[in-house]
């Protein structure tokens, strides 16, 4: 079975500073990986996803993530954050090549931006 | 096109009462998920419907929770004899799995349930 660990429950950073939100997964099979974002009082929306191919994935709002198979990680990064990036970020994993498998979410990381 | 909709947006009920939460997925999406998000917590998987297959109920926390999906579209999550610890935001998501399972989930706005 797959599982996801988000090591940091909260990450405070100053505006315009870089940020990295960590995500590690465990799986014995190939996986698809996702990052979702939940802005205050809104639903979740997809930020980016890794299915195959290039290990560096670019998403919306200047975010990117790198799939590292040897370290079983899929960390999310942004070189310079804005106040509007304040949100909760969820990493998720799904068994690859299986339409029937369900998506498993991590516990989330709350990103707070300080001016 | 229309996204995933959920109703009601807010529900306040008394302990011991039954509640029904509704989810209308995106038309044509064969997969439907229910999650629970308690205050300050992550997403707790509840149940997963995929096409005509038997649902994956492995996340339902107790036998007070049940869900149906009629005609492969609308889903109803029912909580019987509600308890205060059931208070949370209940999220629904739908997706359209391809043959390679590359589906992206689309989330509804959620139903905020408060049990007094």
Instruction: Count helical runs of chain A.
Output: 0
Report how far apart the termini of chain A are. Answer: 41 Å
Largest sheet of chain B, described in full? 6 strands, mixed
Q: Biggest sheet of chain A, in brief?
A: 6 strands, mixed
Cα-based radius of gyration of chain B, to the nearest Å? 14 Å
Assign an overall shape of chain B: globular
Which regions of chain A contain 5 or more consecutive residues with pLDDT less than 50? none
Tell me the number of strands of chain A. 12
Overall average residue pLDDT of chain A? 90
Structural class of the helices, strands and pairings of chain B? mainly beta
* Percentage beta strand of chain A: over 45%
Mean residue pLDDT of chain B: 90
Gap between N and C termini of chain B: 37 Å
Rounded radius of gyration of chain A (Å): 14 Å
Secondary structure elements and their pairing?
The complex is a heterodimer of chains A (115) and B (116).
Chain A: E1 3-5, E2 10-14, E3 19-21, E4 24-26, E5 31-38, E6 44-50, E7 56-58, E8 64-68, E9 73-78, E10 87-95, E11 104-105, E12 109-114
Parallel strand pairs in A: 2-12
Antiparallel strand pairs in A: 1-4, 3-9, 5-6, 5-10, 7-8, 8-9, 10-11, 10-12
Chain B: E1 5-7, E2 10-13, E3 19-24, E4 31-37, E5 43-50, E6 65-69, E7 75-79, E8 88-95, E9 106-107, E10 111-115
Parallel strand pairs in B: 2-10
Antiparallel strand pairs in B: 1-3, 3-7, 4-5, 4-8, 6-7, 8-9, 8-10
What does this structure look like?
The complex is a heterodimer of chains A (115) and B (116). By secondary structure, chain A is mainly beta. Chain A contains no helices and twelve strands. Chain A is globular, with a radius of gyration of 14 Å. Chain B is built from no helices and ten strands. At the A-B interface, strand 5, strand 6, strand 10 and strand 11 of A face strand 4 and strand 5 of B.
